[in-house]
Each structure stands twice: as structure tokens, then as C-alpha cells.
Amino acid sequence: MSAVDLTLTDLTPDDPRMSADAEPLIRTLRPELTAEAFTAFAREAYGQGLRFTVAYDTATARPLGAATHRLLATSRGRVLFVDDLVTAPESRGRGVGAYLLAELERRGRAAGCLRVELDSGTINVQAHRFYHAQRMTIGALHFGRNLWRGPHEPNR
What we know:
five-stranded mixed β-sheet, 4 helices, globular
């Protein structure tokens, strides 16, 4: 599949395609998200500026990939931060991810961003290969600490 066979569409939380198209793609990365949790996440994150872009096969209207992204003002300058970038497993290696990333770069430039940035799990070697092939570099390590052990129990 070439990039010309794709149509990109931005979805809002109220769009029925959010649960039908974007949710299954995002849940391939985040299987712990239930349908209810995804809906709550999508509404809250959209209110915080997260945007949901889905790549559809132009001929069949099948969703083949998705990106969630937002503009951030940081002390390093303005960046377009990619929260999630995913291609449907059966469509990997066909240019969907590269097409989405190129569009995010275009949007970042148009918004005056200096960089496109994302985090990738340390064990996701396949994604790392893809990002390196897209000329992305490892510019930082992302550190975190859980604040909760379970659904409602804080760490002490």
C-alpha cells in the first residue's frame, strides 16, 4: 500500500468512529484499557488538547492506523508530542505509520514546533527500529514512579 491510498481523519470523542475505529487500534497498544476506560480517557484527554487522527484505507474505509498527539509548550520550546502511534497488526510494514508520522511532522511545523517527540516502551524493539528508520533519535529517558498500587491504594 502506498501513502496515496490513505485518508487521515481527526476524530472527536462524540464521533461514533472513535469507539468503532480508534479504540481498537489504541487498545492494541494499551490492552488494559476497557471500552469504558477508553471512552473516559478520550473525553478527558481531548479536553486537555489530545487529538486523535485515524488513517483509513481510502478504497475500503478500513482504519489502518492511529495517532494521538498534542501541542506542548515546554522549556525546550514548542513540541508536538505523540502519545500513541499504532498501525493495525495486519497492516504493519505497509507505510501507514510513516504516513501518519509525516503528517504529524507537517502539523508540528505549521504550529511552530521545534520537534516531534514521543516515548516508546523500553521492550518495544520493533517500534524502536521503526523510529530509527524514520530518522528519530533517542534524546532522553522518561522516568516515572507509580503513585497507586491498585485501583484506589496509594503507594507509601
